[in-house]
Design brief:
Helix content is about 50%, strand content about 10%. The protein is of the alpha+beta class. It folds into 2 domains: about 1-85, Phosphatidylinositol 3-kinase Catalytic Subunit, Chain A, domain 1 (Ubiquitin-like (UB roll)), CATH 3.10.20; about 90-290, no CATH class. The strands form 2 sheets. A 4-stranded mixed beta sheet has the order 2-1-4-3, with helices on one face. Helix 3 packs parallel to helix 5 and helix 4 packs antiparallel against helix 7. The radius of gyration is 25 Å and the shape is elongated. The structure holds NADP nicotinamide-adenine-dinucleotide phosphate (NAP).
């Protein structure tokens, strides 16, 4: 069969098109494009069916597991696909690793090294117990996230655009530096011993709960990440769709109760805002996938992220 590959403007990407076997899969098509272009490896390619100009419908993305023939319609032996270059890609594990490594390294630098001299503070630095516990708490959190990235999460998407590494690192590394600066500052004033214990105690419970939520999510997929999206259930997932985000937000609340910095609360608000938007989208997706029609399961009534508000 003959496949013509065009750009979104209609320009032919591969002169003369590609000849594929009748049983070729979309994965074979991706490989064939890579062999001819030498530049666009499969995860860089997005292939869709052409849409009529003027229509508002979304283009159909070719599914790697299907046969190319399935998209031909009727018994035609010709297919035109629209190619989009997604740009350089990195694996999700690499993306997450770099974004979490920054805070894990930056925070201890502010604790262990005499950086404040360079900001004009000549006074002797007295380290309060809460600052030491905050260091342990912070490092445990980001170390846990890196371990979960490699050994717990089963990602459905293989790669992410390289540009996201810079965007996400800017977010995590900047907030890491901002909070570390104020937490380890020579003029830092600690909260009461009781408040510190309540904050860290509550935060640690939430970190353990967050880890357990990630284990429950992991068990929704097969080891290679296939299985699509399922209805999460068990533990807090019986009440709230994104229980992992709920526990993440609460564990930062615990950290802030114990440490009381403006920087920490800013991070809490920004992170909660981002996760709330993601949670709304995930909740919508699950309700759409499990609509209770044509034999499909019906998504149960649940809070989205922060019961009893949302
Ligand atoms: N502080 C912050 O600013 C912040 C922001 C975001 C996240 N986090 C932390 O990082 C953790 C991971 O974040 P994330 O956004 O990657 O979490 P996520 O999308 O909720 O899920 C984690 C893993 O579970 C999979 N998964 C989620 N729902 C599923 C379902 N219904 N069926 C099957 N698999 C499902 C995801 O698959 P896919 O690969 O398909 O997505 C992903 O591999 C969070 O839980 C949170 O603790 C912190």
């Amino acid at each position: 069969m003959k496949v013509t590959v065009v750009s979104r403007s209609g320009r032919e990407i591969i002169k003369g098109g590609l000849d594929l076997n009748d049983g070729a899969t979309v994965t074979d098509l991706h490989e064939a494009i890579y062999r001819r272009t030498k530049k666009y490896y499969p995860s860089r390619q997005r292939l869709t069916l052409p849409v009529q100009s003027g229509t508002k419908e979304k283009p159909v993305v070719l599914n790697s597991r299907k046969n190319v023939q399935d998209y031909c319609g009727g018994n035609s032996d010709n297919l035109t696909v629209v190619f989009k270059d997604l740009g350089p890609q990195v694996s999700y594990r690499i993306l997450f690793f770099w974004e979490y490594l920054g805070p894990l390294i930056i925070y201890p630098i502010f604790y262990f090294f005499p950086v404040y001299q360079y900001f004009g503070y000549k006074v002797e630095r007295v380290i309060h117990p809460v600052q030491t516990y905050a260091l342990y708490y912070w490092c445990f959190h980001y170390f846990k996230r890196i371990m979960e990235t490699f050994f717990v999460h089963r990602f459905s998407h293989a790669t992410s655009p390289l540009a996201n590494v810079f965007r996400n690192c800017a977010y995590y590394w900047t907030f890491g530096s901002y909070i570390a600066y104020y937490m380890n500052h020579p003029l830092y004033t600690p909260v009461s011993d009781l408040q510190m214990k309540i904050g860290f105690g509550f935060g640690l419970i939430c970190q353990v709960a967050n880890f357990y939520c990630h284990l429950l999510l992991r068990n929704l997929r097969r080891p290679e990440g296939s299985g699509g999206y399922q209805i999460p259930s068990g533990f807090l997932f019986n009440i709230v769709t994104c229980a992992n985000y709920t526990t993440e937000i609460y564990q930062w609340l615990g950290f802030n109760i114990a440490t009381q910095t403006f920087a920490g609360y800013v991070f809490l608000v920004v992170a909660a805002f981002i996760m709330t938007n993601w949670a709304l989208a995930k909740h919508r997706r699950l309700k759409k996938l499990f609509d209770g029609k044509e034999g499909r399961l019906k998504y149960p009534r649940r809070w989205v992220i922060l019961p009893p508000f949302l």
